Amino acid sequence: MFVSRPAVHPVEAPPLTDVAENPPRVMMKDIQGMPGTPGGLALRLCQFLFAAAALSVMASTSDFTSVTSFCYLVGAVILQSLWSLLLAFVDIYALLVKRCLRNSRAVCLFTIGDGIMYALTFAAACASAGVTVLISNDLNICSENHCTSFQTATAMAFISWFALAPSFLLNFWSLASR
Q: Which class for 11: exposed (0-12), middle (13-18), buried (19 or more C-beta within 10 A)?
């Protein structure tokens, strides 16, 4: 019976290369709008302000609870306000201590959270817009309802969603480029 025996062969170290041939990897620049930048803080504050405006306008009416999509809009903008305010505080902290927020776990968390808020806010704003159009244009019962308040709250939710789009896309791009 012929059995092969393991043989140990020394392995040579790879030759050292010049820095000119293989330059070190360069980190992506902080693009304004990404977490930890002044542009990111401005986007988070805009998201918070418009979501809070949508919430306050909708809560000022007494009959928003009679329509499910308006209740959904209130819930979505509450979550959007809390998420944006939390990340605004994180951005303020990062700017004060000059800390970079490009940690892969942090970027993954920001991307997932922004993606959920992106879909949730868009769905709520679209549902509320549909009901608002139904009430104002199709049924013509604006005299009995607070149509202008509903339209204003829906518009504020859409503007909050528009402010969320760059944050989500930049975080997703940063996560995908790793």
A: exposed
